[in-house]
Amino acid sequence: MYNNVPDAVARAEAVTAVRGSDDFAAVSAAFKRMKNILAQAAEKGEVPHASAETSGFQHPAEIALMLKEEEIADLVKKAADSREYVSALEVIATLRPEVDEFFDQVMVMDPDPKTRNNRALVCCNGFFAISRGLRTFRRL
What we know:
This protein is mainly α and about 140 residues long. Helices cover about 70% and strands about 0% of the residues. It is built from six helices and no strands. Helix 2 crosses helix 6 (about 115-135) and helix 3 (about 60-80) runs parallel beside helix 6 (about 115-135). The longest helix is centred in the N-terminal third of the chain and has 22 residues, at about 20-45. The protein is elongated and about 50 Å long. The termini are close together.
């Protein structure tokens, strides 16, 4: 796929098409923030455990973001696999309300290790679920 010039052009055109969207720009910035949070955790040797304890979620914004991530992950992957790149990126942009609320209301690097793990995992799940769907965009 990476050596397919027409496909690379289609991916670049899709990014160009959605780049001006306020929602896409906000979600892109949030994913950069998620990546930075995960890097900070890794530097401290605190890589999130494989599963969050959903019973431990303390804030509605955590639950809302996790549910939205689960809702769109397959849609993004299917759209990207079908080479409907604009659609994939537009679906990702629908995360904006949940991502904004999460970062406005939740302190990810909470002093409590269990809470911190759950919140870092919400970031991790979102980052990697969407990254898997967008793996086709990495080499642009």
